[in-house]
Specification:
The structure is a homodimer.
Chain A (H helix, E strand, L loop, with lengths): L3 E7 L4 H17 L1 E7 L2 H7 L6 H4 L1 H17 L16 H9 L5 H13 L8 H10 L6 H6 L2 H16 L7 E4 L4 E3 L4 H14 L1
Parallel strand pairs in A: 1-2
Antiparallel strand pairs in A: 1-3, 3-4
Helix pairs in contact in A: 1-6, 1-10, 5-6, 5-9, 6-7
Chain lengths: 204, 204
């Protein structure tokens, strides 16, 4: 039986996407689900809805809760102690372009490295130097990777991936979408999304 | 050892509060946590933040996801099939006043009955008749209960409870607050809030 597909939409500025990215590979393997790692940008989706930024940022009470919550979850998942990026949210454009440009086999490790740099190591992922060092740490020693990621064709691919997310009803990150279009929002729904994808594949 | 206290803030218009109210008593008993059932109104808190309504209502994509999500969770929890109140959100003022007016021993059963009427039976909980029948079903056969709930003193109590919630940082429902002020937002965090309350009590 072929493994079940599941789209994993994530934005590099999203703390809950970090938590999901740290967990999804092991859980998907156990559930025999094949993850399509899909970096996208939440900014244009928020803007189209008339939000200046995420409600997690614009509501101070929600913001206080979010950091306490993400800190507790990082501990629960045995991740390194959470470090809050400052400023927040960071500009995730460059990281998203590079992640998209890498092939499917390399994207997950790069994605996890970016998130860890951002939320556990206090590094600035909007900085080209940081991205270069993260790539080098994964064996991509050519600065050309970044140049290629910033070519118009790749920029357009990221724009199209963001538009596809919006068209499927994505309004936040992380979001998981199964083959039947069922949409699951949030790190909290990762397990449920995997269950759904697996059941779909079995019923097929 | 005394059981650990945990405040449970809920709004009768909130579907996720319904899910938490259906689960909390059994889970709290298992965790030896004493729940303070605290009905309040989200409306004035949203208004103070400049939101016309809940983001679950104002964003159509979020709204579609919410109903799919609550429907799936109701099934997962073995609750009756979810029925979407129409209109939504309902006016939860009368139900909140009556819930607050009842004593601590009667409030949980009334709360669950209201939520079930609203989200599983398609009944209008803004209607005085509905509330009267729910009360009668629980053995409160006196229409005076509703009259008393609408006295100025009780109205003021509900206002004070809402203000207390806001002052503690409540921005959504359900919200759980432990004795040390730690705040947990959402039905998804019920188990974590209970764990926290229990650990606090053991450390004391």
């Amino acid at each position: 039986m072929a493994s079940a597909p599941l789209d994993f939409y994530y934005d590099f500025s999203s703390p809950y996407s970090y938590l999901a990215a740290a967990r999804i590979a092991a859980l998907a393997e156990g559930a025999d689900v094949r993850i399509a790692w899909k970096p996208f940008l939440l900014g244009p989706i928020f803007a189209a809805k008339g939000h200046a930024t995420s409600p997690l940022v614009s509501d101070p009470d929600k913001n206080v809760h979010m950091w306490a919550d993400v800190t507790r979850l990082a501990e629960l998942y045995h991740l390194p102690p959470l470090r809050r990026p400052d400023p927040f949210p960071v500009n995730s454009l460059l990281a998203a372009r590079v992640a998209l440009h890498l092939n499917d086999a390399c994207r997950p490790a790069f994605t996890r490295a970016v998130y860890r740099a951002e939320f556990a190591e206090g590094r600035d992922i909007a900085d080209r130097e940081t991205i270069y060092h993260l790539l080098a740490g994964l064996g991509h020693f050519f600065e050309e990777v970044i140049d290629e990621a910033e070519r118009q064709e790749n920029k357009d691919r990221l724009r199209a991936q963001t538009e596809a997310a919006r068209a499927e009803g994505v309004f936040g990150a992380p979001t998981f979408i199964a083959a039947d279009g069922a949409l699951f929002w949030g790190n909290d729904r990762l397990e449920m999304a995997l269950d759904h994808a697996r059941r779909l594949a079995r019923a097929a």
